[in-house]
């Protein structure tokens, strides 16, 4: 019995200390999408390529207090940036719909519904500053009775639908990440 507890203690101690060895950084999107980096790892992005990616954001899961899928976009921007890919070669689009739709609300509209500030606003601003295009599905916004002109964050573009936005960008050879 004592051996079992001792083994469990040693194992958990090793796991805790192993987690602390990584150096986490956020080189482009400060505070979000943390990464570790070693230029000697395999499949480092090529600096002379264009990266055309569209994210389909549909869930309300959170990571570190913000939408987890927006957080992962920040991670991709950070990974490409630290790998030396120029901003002009990074083309990232996000289309937001479904349960994720409330992340696009401005602070006033968000507070009316959730009685607190929208925790995603700073991340959305940072993503826009990095050149990420953000769209919300008008169908999803309408289903939730969000007013396009009063409720939606000014950094977000309202598109006809997530469906048509996904098709549009995939026809332009953007790679879909869900």
UniProtKB/TrEMBL annotation:
Q: Does the keyword Chloroplast apply?
A: no
Q: Which SUPFAM superfamilies match?
A: DsrEFH-like
Which positions, given as ranges, span the membrane?
none
State the UniProt keywords alphabetically: Signal
The signal sequence is: 1-18
Give the InterPro entries listed for this entry: DsrEFH-like, Sulphur_relay_DsrE/F-like
Pfam family name, one? DsrE
> Which named protein is this?
DsrE family protein
The species is Sulfurovum zhangzhouensis
